[in-house]
Amino acid sequence: MAKDVKPTRKNLMAIEDRIELSERGHDTLEQKRDGLIMEFMDILDQAQDVRSDLSDDYETAQRKIDMARAMEGDVAVRGAAAALKEHPEITTQSKNIMGVVVPQIESSKVKKSLDERGYGLLGSSARIDEAADAYEELLETIILAAEVETAMKKMLEEIETTKRRVNALEFTLLPQLYENQEYIEQKLEEQEREEIFRLKKIKAKKEEEEEEAEAAAEAEAVSAD
Amino acid sequence: MSQEIAVIGSPEFTTGFRLAGVRTFENVPDDRKDEELDDAVERTLEDEGVGIIVMHEEDLSHLSRGVRERVEGSIEPVLVTLGASGAGGGGLRDQIKRAIGIDLMEEDD
Predict the structure, then answer these.
(1) Closest Cβ–Cβ partner in B4, B78, B86 for A55
(2) Which of A72, A223, B13, B108 gets the most CB atoms within 10 Å of its CB?
C-alpha cells in the first residue's frame, strides 16, 4: 500500500519508471489479447464446420454398420474388425500462432484399399466394406477435429492468461503505482512547505534577535551618556 | 513421433472404429460404465502412444468429476466426442464463455 513506500525523490523516480513500463506492457498485452481473439474467431468458424461434418459422418457410419450388423450378423462384423492389419497412425507437428504452439496432425493409413484391410475378400460382404469405408472417413474428420479443437483449447488458455495479465495491470498494479506516486508527491510537497516555514521562522527569530541586540546596544549607549 | 487413435466406449461403439483399423480401444459394456469407465479413461490418458481419444458424448456423464475434467482439458491426448448436438463438446463451450466472456456457440442451438 501507499504507506509502505518511503517518500523520497529516488523512489518517486523509480515509481515513475515502473508506471511507464507497466503502461507500455499493458498496451502491448491488450493488443496481443485482441489479436488472439481475432485468430480464435477464424478457428472457431473452422471448428463449427468440422463439428457438423463430424456428426454427419458419424450418423452415416453408424447407419452403415447397423446395416452390416443386421445383414451379416454381429459376429461377422466383429470378426472382420479383429482381422485388420493396417493401423492408422498420426504424427504431430507444431505451428505457431502469435506465440501459441498449435499442433498440425498428419495421418497415414486411414484410408485403405480392400486388399489392405486384411479380412479377405471372400469372407466378407460389401456391407462390411461400406461400413469400413464410412468409418475411415469418420476417422479422417475426427483427426481434423482433434487438430482444430486442440488449437482452440490452447488459444483459449493463452487468451485467458493474457486477459488476466491485462486486468492485473489495469486494475491492480497501475492503480497502486499511481497511488504511491501521488502519496510521494504529496509528502514531498509537504516537506517542502515545512522547510519553507522553518526557514521563515528562523529568519524571523534572527531578525528578532538582531532587533533585540540593537535595542540593547541603544539602551547601553543611552545609559552611557 | 507417430501416435495412434484410441476409442473408449461400449463394444458396439468401438467395433466400427476397429473396422477402420483402430487397434487401441477399451470396451466397457453399458451396464458396467459407472464402475469401469473411469479406469479405462485413465489407462488411455497415461498411454503415451495415444494422440486422440474418441468417446461418445453420453459416456462422459458416466465419468467421475475429476476424470472428466482431466480428459476434457487434456491436450495430449486430445478428446474428440461424437454424438453431441453440434455445440463443441469436451467442455469447450464453457471454456470459451470463460475466456472470451460471450457464448460464441449459441447460434448452434
Answers:
(1) B86
(2) B13
From the first residue on, what is the mean pLDDT of each consecutive set of 10 residues in chain B (109 residues)?
Answer: 87 87 87 88 90 88 88 84 62 77 64
Note the ipTM here: 0.83
C-alpha A178/C-alpha B16 separation (Å) is: 64
**Can you tell me the distance from the alpha carbon of A103 to that of A171, in angstroms, rounded to the nearest whole number?**
34
Q: Is B90 on the interface with A (CB under 8 A)?
A: yes
Q: Are B75 and A102 in contact (CB under 8 A)?
A: no
- All structural domains of chain A with their residue ranges: 28-152
Rounded Cα gap, residues B44 and B39, in angstroms: 9
A148-191 pLDDT, tens digit per residue, is 888 888 888 899 999 999 999 999 999 999 999 999 999 999 99
Q: B55 near B29, Cβ under 8 Å?
A: no
Across the interface, whether the CB atoms of A87 and B23 are under 8 A apart is answered yes
Domains, chain B, in order of start with CATH, read 4-100 (3.40.50.10580)
Please list the ranges in chain A whose pLDDT falls under 50: none
The DSSP secondary structure of A157-192, one letter per residue, reads HHHHHHHHHHHHIIIIIHHHHHHHHHHHHHHHHHHH
Residue B49 near chain A (CB below 8 Å): no
